[in-house]
Design brief:
This is Histidine--tRNA ligase. One of its GO terms (molecular function) is histidine-tRNA ligase activity. Belongs to the class-II aminoacyl-tRNA synthetase family. By secondary structure, the protein is an alpha+beta fold. Among the domains are: about 240 residues, 2-Layer Sandwich (BirA Bifunctional Protein, domain 2), CATH 3.30.930.10; about 110 residues, Rossmann fold, CATH 3.40.50. It contains 17 helices and 18 strands. The strands form four sheets. Strands 1-5-6-13-12-11-7-10 form an eight-stranded mixed beta sheet. Strands 15-14-16-17-18 form a five-stranded mixed beta sheet. Strand 11 and strand 12 form a beta hairpin. It is elongated, with a radius of gyration of 29 Å.
């Protein structure tokens, strides 16, 4: 007896961890945000540029690990020339490569001011609010005069633009703050500690960077032997002594207490303090008070390529998620000065400063705060199919509406049941439907049904008002008046697309 043929095994549909599918409502909300951010950036004189999502791995920055397979933190693969390529980790390192290729040519006007947005990719452990793919929106100024007021003005401008962007997105003053620090001040702390090992110092900075999340007690643990989190995972610390931990903590806590004598002798630390003073004066002169932009010595920023001032935008609002749990959003954007990134390609210092908004994270915050319209856009006008043998007539109507700039579609499902067609149009969020049976066709007429007005009939208690709305909800017009009738409905409900 022959064996029965095996049934083909079905492939399981599943989404990789740390990624998300996005529907019309989320995409529409992102579009709203992006256009508001773009308007602010362009008001500051920045121009758009795009770079690919894939770069040579060694071009992505010195923060990448140096090993045979450089995939820690980034998604990497080898091409047919055995060159390592990676998905971009951020939007700044690719910009540095872009500028370096054109530096000193007529194709690049210096100082170069550009903005760009798009997906970036992190090969990291996913978690709540932490995705492997997310959207960033950056602005950068590259090639200012080295040092002095020009660089300070560029840094101050980034801080002011960050504040303006938050308010353009509907976050009121007092509900956010742009915090500023300087890596040179932190380098002064390194001098005072006498740390020569780059790895140990990176551990110190990463510990300080977690202050808002872990508090002083958690940071002290990470500066010392290490910390065990709630899940039991242990993170090895920087191994500092008690006195050195106290110095780090005192340098990042705000206050007017006595300064450790070891910090006063650091020239680079003093230079960092002076640069912060310059930024403070410039933003104050433009009317940005400490309620919008403030100096905060605890700001570190995560990437290693920052060389001077660093900034971070923090939301101060508390809210609750869909399960009623308290949510504090914290940082939704940041940036800083990175004078050494372009120089990796050119062998000379090229001043640069930039700011990046984490669009995906900020969108989640704005949605919870009710600052974004999370509804999907109005769907298309749906032309129904009453007679199967007259599809060409219905398609002609669709074309007429589209040629008039109106979103429209022909119902392509089973036309047997008109009720199902109307349900489809309702689920598509269509503002209206077009119906033409044989009787209407013989008279040269079409029925135009206002679905938005019709949906509101159930809330109308007054009989005369009900009859009036019912008459308006479905009207019969000449075929030649189809576009006019649809436009009237769109105007009635202020329907727009895009």
């Amino acid at each position: 007896m022959a064996d029965k043929p095996k049934k083909p095994q079905k492939l399981k549909a599943r989404l990789p961890r740390g990624l998300e599918d996005r529907g019309p409502a989320a995409i529409n909300a992102t579009r709203q945000m992006v256009e508001k951010i773009r308007a602010v950036y362009e008001r500051y004189g920045f121009e758009p540029v795009e770079t690919p999502a894939i770069e040579y791995t060694d071009a992505l920055g010195k923060f990448l690990p140096d090993q045979d397979r450089p995939n820690e933190g980034v998604f990497s693969f080898q091409d047919d020339d055995e060159q390592w390529l990676s998905l971009r980790y951020d939007l700044t390192a690719p910009l540095a490569r872009y500028v370096a290729e054109r530096y000193g040519t007529e194709n690049l006007v210096l100082p170069y001011r550009s903005y760009r947005f798009g997906y970036v990719y992190r090969n990291e452990k996913p978690g709540p609010g932490r995705f492997r793919q997310f959207v960033q929106f950056d602005a950068d100024t590259i090639g200012t005069a080295a040092g002095g007021q020009s660089s300070a003005a560029a840094d101050a401008e980034m801080c002011m633009m960050a504040a303006d962007t938050m308010e353009a997105l509907g976050i009121p003053r007092g509900s956010y703050v742009v915090k500023v620090n300087n890596r040179k001040v932190l380098d002064g702390v390194r001098d005072a500690l006498g740390i020569s090992d780059d790895g140990q110092w990176l551990t110190v900075m990463r510990a300080v960077d977690k202050l808002d999340r872990l508090g002083i007690a958690g940071v002290k643990q990470l500066l010392g032997e290490g910390r065990k989190d709630e899940s039991g995972d242990f993170t090895k610390g920087a191994g500092l002594k008690e006195a050195d931990i106290a110095l780090v903590v005192s340098s990042v806590e705000q206050g007017d207490g006595p300064v450790d004598p070891r910090l006063r002798d650091s020239k680079i630390g003093q230079q960092g303090c002076e640069e912060l003073e310059d930024i403070g004066k410039l933003v104050a002169a433009s009317g940005y008070g400490s309620d919008r932009i403030m100096i905060d010595p605890s700001v570190v920023r995560g990437l290693e390529y920052y060389t001077g001032p660093v900034f971070e935008v923090e939301l101060l609002l508390d809210t609750k998620d869909e399960k009623g749990r308290p949510v504090r959003f914290g940082s939704v954007g940041g940036g800083g000065r990175y004078d050494g990134l372009v120089s990796r390609f050119r062998g000379e210092v090229v001043p640069a400063t930039g700011f990046s908004i984490g669009v995906s994270r900020l969108q989640a915050a704005l949605t919870l705060l009710g600052k974004l319209d999370t509804r999907a856009e109005s769907g298309p006008v749906v032309v129904t199919v009453f007679d199967r043998d007259r599809v060409a007539d219905y398609q002609k109507m669709v074309a007429e509406l589209r040629n008039a700039g109106i979103r429209a579609e022909l119902y392509l499902g089973n036309p047997k049941n008109m009720g199902n067609q109307l349900k489809y149009a309702d689920r598509r969020n269509a503002p209206c439907v077009i119906i033409q049976g044989s009787d209407e066709k013989a008279k040269g007429k079409v029925q135009v049904k206002d679905l938005i007005l019709g949906a509101g009939l159930t809330d109308t208690e007054d009989r005369e008002e009900y009859l009036k709305k019912q008459a308006e909800a479905q009207t019969e017009v000449d075929e030649s008046e189809l576009v006019t009738a649809v436009r009237k409905i769109l105007a009635r409900h202020a329907v727009t697309w895009g």
